[in-house]
Amino acid sequence: MVDIDEFVKRVVTVDTPQRIWASKNFTGNLEFKGQLNSTTVNGLNLRDYVDRVVFKNRDEVVRGKKTIKGSVNIEGNLNIDGYLNDVDIPKLKGKAMSKSKPNDITAPMAFVNSVEIGK
To answer: Which domain of life is it from (predicted)?
Structure first.
């Protein structure tokens, strides 16, 4: 026999604000449509974690080696102070031969195709 009054006091309802004291284990996906206030998720302290992640809408300095395995489209300027695919970009910028600016070439060169010199 079920005591209906006790049942109504203990059951979690979907349309009434409630404080649930017992642990719950949700085995499917869980989606929150409203604001979620919690200090930990899966044992992860969110307050500490927030300082260690990159946000989509915040200008930030990102340190450490990052490997992007998918395609990337950068719609703005890419500023690199270091290496890109193991290439020292600032050093390359200073050493690359320019198509239009004067260069002092100090290393031996061998051109394996025709060279045309215009006026």
So the answer is: Eukaryota
The predicted model scores a pTM of 0.47
Q: Quote the CA–CA distance of 43 and 39 in Å, as a whole number.
A: 9
Question: Is the distance from CB of 82 to CB of 89 less than 8 angstroms?
Answer: yes
Q: Name the region of 85 (left: φ>0; alpha: ψ -120 to 50; beta: rest).
A: left
Of 82, 98, 99, 79, nearest in space to 90 by CA:
82
Q: Tokens representing 60?
A: 């930030």
Token pair for residue 105? 């070439």
- Residues 36-61: pLDDT tens digits? 888 898 899 988 888 889 999 999 98
Q: Which residue is associated with the tokens 């642990």?
A: 23
| C-beta neighbour count of 89 within 10 angstroms | 15
